[in-house]
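Milestone M4 deliverable, item 7.
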Amino acid sequence: MMTERKVRYLISESEGMIMEYLWNQEEGKTFGDITEYLNTTCQKEWKKQTINTFIRRLMEKGLIVSQNSLKRRVYYPSMSYTDYRQGEAKDFLSEFYGGSMKMFLSAFSGGGKLDEDTANELKEILGDM
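Output delivered:
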């Protein structure tokens, strides 16, 4: 029986660069593609071992997957950017506010009432759900 592994959404700025690159691609990318992007576009000049460590961490967190293709490993994001952001928000709410939107909004408003514009915006969002 295979158990589903929990995705860990907390990523470093460096891991975020890799994720952003993969999310913006039409197809998976090789280690060489990722290295070239980081060292050329992002001007990082990182060694292969450093980049490999970031990729391994992202795989362990469940955020990227890989497939072997013609003797090359190709990396893909395991979810869309939107799904990632939603998961990240749910994790944040769960970890810091026990999953309670009411507790979050209370902290967000400083314990006071929300201003009318914010309250109306929230009502509109909740009405669309």
